[in-house]
């Protein structure tokens, strides 16, 4: 039976500021996904525009020098592309989207934001297409209302930025299952943190189950739902659409059964291995479907 904490409609955060027409997939694909929602590919989902992340809240997760450099344009080469007013607004919107989605999930059980470019950003620098760490911001926002937060990172790459910012926070548990060792990190507290780089597609879902087990007891779950694990979206041969569908169902059922509010971020998913951007967006739609089920 579904948890009564999951109330309808599913509200997902997105605005036109998210998508910058030219550039990395991190900043372009959300627009395609939003169109699929407004075209009714998944019914009953509401898109809501978030408030931009503020300088003050970004300084809770990043160094003042780094935040000022990005906000002022002094830092020309951002991880997500060359600085422009439009790119900055996109970064602030997608980061703010994670904060607003967190509050929506705390109210109504579940939410998400079509945000990418988060988990490699560390306290004093961007990295790997990620400028500000919206996952870390979401965790601190949730901790205003709950005692503990879990971050389940199932992007193809490890979330070294999130670990850099949060791994010493005793109220945060990190569980990271990747298929590539890029940006891997060392847990400081094995009881609180889990990281595994999978090397065979057959063991992928077992590792996801193991990761979820380590999050038992958290009061809020942040899910970095990368699709770059998929064999044709930048990931590992053998991780098919069926595996992705099973993964999304596993995560959402885990939260439903425990009545743990859950929020998702889009995260990675690329055209490097043969998919069109539309096909990548269709993969991300699986996360929305699972949350809306
Ligand atoms: Zn990735």
Task: Summarize the topology.
Blueprint: E1 10-13, H1 25-38, E2 45-48, H2 55-58, H3 64-72, E3 77-78, E4 81-82, H4 85-108, E5 110-113, H5 134-142, E6 149-153, H6 160-166, E7 172-178, E8 193-197, H7 204-214, E9 221-224, H8 241-258, E10 262-265, H9 277-292
Parallel strand pairs: 1-2, 1-5, 5-10, 6-7, 6-9, 7-8, 9-10
Antiparallel strand pairs: 3-4
Helix pairs in contact: 1-9, 4-5, 7-8, 8-9
Bound molecules: zinc ion (ZN).
What can you tell me about this protein's structure?
With 293 residues, this protein is α/β, with parallel strands linked by helices. It has one domain: Histone deacetylase domain (Arginase, Chain A). 38% of the residues lie in helices and 14% in strands. The chain has 9 helices and 10 strands. The protein has an 8-stranded parallel β-sheet with strand order 2-1-5-10-9-6-7-8, with helices on both faces. Helix 6 links the parallel strand 6 and strand 7. The N and C termini lie close together (12 Å). The model has no long low-confidence stretch (mean pLDDT 95). The structure holds zinc ion. The site of zinc ion has 6 residues, from loops.
What's the short version?
With 293 residues, the chain is of the alpha/beta class. The chain has helices at 25-38, 55-58, 64-72, 85-108, 134-142, 160-166, 204-214, 241-258, 277-292, and strands at 10-13, 45-48, 77-78, 81-82, 110-113, 149-153, 172-178, 193-197, 221-224, 262-265. The radius of gyration is 17 Å and the shape is globular.
């Amino acid at each position: 039976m579904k948890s009564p904490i999951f109330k309808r409609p599913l509200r997902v955060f997105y605005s036109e500021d998210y998508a910058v027409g030219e550039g990395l997939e991190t900043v372009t694909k959300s627009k395609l996904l939003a169109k699929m929602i407004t075209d009714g590919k998944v019914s009953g989902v509401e898109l809501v525009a978030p408030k931009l992340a503020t300088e003050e809240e970004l300084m809770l997760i990043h160094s003042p020098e780094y935040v000022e450099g990005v906000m002022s344009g002094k830092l020309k080469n951002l991880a997500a592309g060359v600085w422009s007013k439009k790119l900055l607004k996109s970064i602030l919107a997608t980061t703010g989207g994670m904060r607003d989605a967190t509050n929506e999930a705390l109210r109504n059980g579940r939410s998400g934001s079509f945000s990418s470019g988060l988990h490699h950003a560390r306290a004093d620098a961007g990295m790997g297409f990620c400028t500000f760490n919206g996952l870390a911001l979401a965790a601190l926002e949730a901790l205003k209302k709950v005692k503990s937060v879990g971050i389940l990172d199932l992007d193809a790459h490890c979330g070294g930025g999130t670990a850099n910012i949060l791994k010493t926070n005793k109220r945060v548990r990190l569980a990271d299952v990747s298929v590539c060792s890029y940006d891997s990190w060392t847990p400081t507290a094995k009881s609180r943190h889990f990281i595994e780089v999978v090397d065979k597609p057959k063991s992928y879902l077992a590792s996801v189950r193991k990761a979820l087990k380590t999050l038992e007891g958290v009061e809020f779950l942040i899910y970095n739902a990368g699709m770059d694990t998929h064999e044709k979206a930048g990931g590992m041969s053998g991780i098919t659409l069926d595996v992705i569908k099973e993964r999304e169902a596993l995560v959402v059922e885990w939260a439903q059964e425990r009545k743990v509010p859950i929020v998702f971020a889009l995260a990675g998913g690329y055209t490097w291995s043969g998919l069109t951007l539309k096909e990548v967006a269709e993969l991300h739609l699986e996360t929305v479907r699972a949350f809306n089920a």
